[in-house]
Design brief:
By secondary structure, the protein is an alpha+beta fold. The chain has 13 helices and 13 strands. Among the domains are: 119 residues, no CATH class; 110 residues, Endonuclease, Chain A (3-Layer(aba) Sandwich), CATH 3.40.960. Helices cover 43% and strands 18% of the residues. This is DUF559 domain-containing protein.
């Protein structure tokens, strides 16, 4: 859990508003009005009350990756702050109870531990029956959620895992929803019986889109990047690619598992996800050598290997190359 502080918390620690402004240039990040995230341990002893619990390993350091993962992490931290604020409201007898609220969509996906492949919103998403409003940091939807589609986590009301998956698929693109379906199926958190939940939803908007996301999902895929790639294959009309195929490489004395394999075209597709893209010099040299030898073995066996970086998942070029490679094989066979 990250270290989260309200303005009042910081003032009680002996800081004034000018100190808060200066700390925001250092180890403090403003999440929303009156709510702050302690990003790291800094060198200023004056700031020690802010980050002492991080130094003592009670709270986590907020890691700045310098890429799109930071935006998802910030949303997660904002969600935790909102979650905590709501809990305080419920226990403060001097204040009226907060309005009925159910976490939903991307926010609820984070609560359920589902992967968000890339940032699609900076807002916390909740359902308040009969209310449709969009604030700077919160989007309120007025949907009707049946009791059967509700659950409680740590005292907060949320939509069930299945309903969350359906809501995300209904409201967001396939490259957001399919990675979540894949993850839930891979970890056996749900099954394709999710269609039963879909049939019982009061909302019928974009139901065909939800069914398509379910059809495209596959428990064998192991990362959001692979799921995004599978969506791109569908969008470009590429078929015949089987996920997670294993080869026995006797000369290397180990098995080799590839992300996607097109057997007829003798084509291997390897996906370098967001983590690999930004690892840089943090990759141990022997792992780089192992990867090089692995790919060379595949080429020696007559396989063409195409690697797709995270950035290339959102471009056309590599998928055109894949389509051409498959068609060349089909033409040669004909």
């Amino acid at each position: 859990m990250y270290k989260l502080l309200s303005t009042d918390d910081i003032l009680r620690l002996g800081f004034n508003h000018g100190d808060i402004v200066r700390a925001r240039r250092c180890c403090l990040r403003r999440l929303s009005r009156g709510t702050y995230l302690v990003r790291r341990v800094c060198e200023l002893d004056f700031h020690r009350p802010l980050w002492a619990s991080i130094d003592q390993q009670i709270h986590q350091v907020f890691v700045d990756h310098g890429d799109i993962r930071d935006e998802v992490n910030i949303l997660n931290a904002s969600l935790a702050a909102h979650f905590s604020h709501r809990a305080d409201q419920r226990t403060d007898e001097s204040k009226s109870d907060p309005p009925e609220e159910i976490y939903s969509h991307i926010s609820d996906a984070l609560i359920h531990g589902l992967p968000v492949a890339y940032p699609v919103t900076h807002q916390i998403e909740v359902v308040r029956p009969g209310v449709n409003r969009r604030f700077k940091s919160i989007q309120v939807r007025g949907s009707q959620i049946p009791k059967a589609h509700r659950a409680t986590i740590a005292g907060a009301e949320v939509t069930t895992l299945e309903r969350t998956l359906i809501d995300v698929a209904r409201s967001y693109n396939l490259d957001v929803s399919v990675p979540m379906f894949d993850d839930a199926l891979h970890r056996e958190l749900t099954t394709r019986e999710i269609l039963t939940t879909l049939d019982r939803c009061l909302e019928k908007r974009n139901s065909a889109k939800v069914r398509l996301a379910i059809d495209l999902s596959d428990y064998r895929r192991e990362s959001p990047a692979e799921a995004v790639a599978a969506v791109r294959f569908y969008e470009h009309g590429i078929t015949g690619l089987e996920p997670q195929v294993t080869f026995h490489a006797e000369s290397l004395r180990r098995d080799i598992r590839v992300d996607f394999c097109h057997r007829r075209a003798r084509l291997i597709i390897e996906i370098d996800g967001i983590g690999k893209l930004y690892l840089g010099s943090g990759v141990p040299r022997h792992e780089l050598e192992q990867e090089r030898r692995r790919e060379q073995w595949l080429r020696d066996q007559g396989w063409q290997v195409i690697r797709i970086s995270w950035k290339e998942l959102f471009e056309e070029a590599k998928f055109y190359d894949i389509l051409c490679a498959i068609r060349r094989t089909q033409n040669a066979t004909a």
